[in-house]
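Data availability excerpt. The first of two example chains:
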Amino acid sequence: MKITTKQAHFSSPLYLESGRILEPYTIAYETYGEINEDKSNVILVCHALSGSHHAAGTYEDEKKAGWWDGLIGEGKAVDTSKYFVICSNVLGSCFGTTGPMSDNYPSHQPFRLKFPVVTIKDMVRAQMHLLSHLGIYRLKAIIGGSMGGMQALQFAVDYPNLAEHIISMAATYATRPWTIAFNKVAVEAIRSDPRFEDGNYEKDAFKEDGLSGLAIGRIAGHISYLSPKSMDKKFDRNYVNTDGLFELFGRYEVERYMEYNTANFSRHFDPLSYLYIVKAINTFSLSRGYDSLHDAISRIKSNVHLFSFSSDYLFFPEEMEHIYKMMKRNEQSCSYIDVESDYGHDAFLVEIDKFEDDIISILGDENEK
């Protein structure tokens, strides 16, 4: 599957929920498959906090495939031989879409902390501009997990006539204090790192050595993405062979794993982008801008399909079930599956075999697998 990153440039103003205006701005995106004549086969995929527009396939110089490659591609649940799939990088990110380290036009200096706070609603509005730019006004489906699932739900509420199906996984109707507390660890770790320089660091300053504050904060994130059972299975109580048990800083395998993965992450993800996206997650609430959550949910006209994961300790199954019960009381079209999993929040990325048949069924291809 041939893939290329594309960019759409917008000179018209983007009015943000905060009252600020972003102008001009750029959105990076990828597409997979071919659009049909009446444009009825379009699926929009929304990414999570650390994701990007690169959802599937592999570039020539790349060893690791896109973050949802197991779900998207020819012959897979989101079959690119049938569907035209779009995935765009969200506002505030660091992978090609306008964010805090982009030039603050008309100057050639980065926004840094002058970049406006963006919300999930803003991310969705920007993607609506992209769809319009591509001449697409109706979608077969919108699919996303975690922050991507938040976006899918926000689309359903704000643009009721856009998508036939909304598929939201491992998400919520509003970010709760438990999750905000996990995010606080990352925020403070980044801000307190002297090399962060109150956001005044140079572009690519951490490409070689990473930022310790971001790496430490990411450890808290990793803990919230997994579960006790998945950690037991992956690491048990194994100790690093080269470390002495009675050395003060000797490590268990789980500690080494956290160090290695978070250090790598801090080399390629911009810390300001991390702060801005975490803020968007923390402020997420479907009810904001409406009289109540019930009022917001009542606007939905799409067929909504909710997936939670039994061991998710970031967004608990009861949060998705709450949306389901509200929609059923309203006699709106909604299904809900709590996927049995020991993996934790990240199950939507790694245990695709547990829900891919459901995706095929939702999209209408259950007789073709």
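And the second chain:
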Amino acid sequence: MMKIKTYEKEDAFLSPYAKKSADTRGRLREETPCNMRTEFQRDRDRIIYSKAFLRLKNKTQVFFAPDGDHYMSRLTHTLDVAQIARSLARVLSLNEDLTEAIALGHDLGHTPFGHIGERVLNSLCPTGFRHSVQSLRVVDKLEKDGKGLNLTFEVRDGILNHTKSGNPATLEGVAVSLADRIAYINHDIEDAIRAGFLKEEDLPQGPVKVFGRTTSARINTAIRDIFAESEGKPYVRMSAEKQAALDELRSFMFERVYEQSNKLIQESAERMLCALYTYFSERPEELPAVYKETASDDIPRAVCDYLSSMTDRYAINIFKELFVPREGSV
């Protein structure tokens, strides 16, 4: 069987600290194994063909409805993270299939309108809202009409713990967490410069000297540094110097871009989501069928499930349908 060949290759070539496919802790519900694909390969395929993954192409990364075709969407960001994470897994002899599956699934629960959407839902939902937790909820409960994707423990753990505050159980999960930060900081810089919110000379010069002046140089420097710091070790991390420089770039982007860019559009997105949250909280019977079961026990959570699943365009259209008078209406 092809799967046995994969197991043999992993035994021969993967780091002793990698998570081998044969050693998975399994799924929430037992299933008949596939003869050809490992469990992590199956997880990757399930994520790619999920509805939540397809919706990422119309979800904002940073800039809402930008004038141009070359800005990052949530989907292109996800592919970017997968590429960087696989590069890390390859040079460190980690499990690329597991790494890719985590990377492709890490943002499935992200809201429309980027991080402003996450902040709004977190402020409205009594139990809070975090996109990493919602991503796990998507694969566990919401996909496949409420059946979930039934992914392996390792992929689910990596999705849940991909944020900076997370503590992944595998080195593959750590690689994705680092790749996520490397990806969004560097490509958000590109988008901000393209949109006119930043000039290259605005970037803090300390991190520029450490990482380089171009996106490709900064990403290559980060990958090389992680390799040098982590090869043959039971951990995956940056050197202290590079981590401090990356944190400085991240703080700079939050101050100059994430919290400042196009405040008028951010305020509009906030008003839309607040209005939609109130509307469906008062009328849970109008939620789509997949969310109604949750609504019987937890209306705020069901409403957040629905709103966070929306693309930017869909949220705007639903808002118009519900709140904007149509021509000729009374």
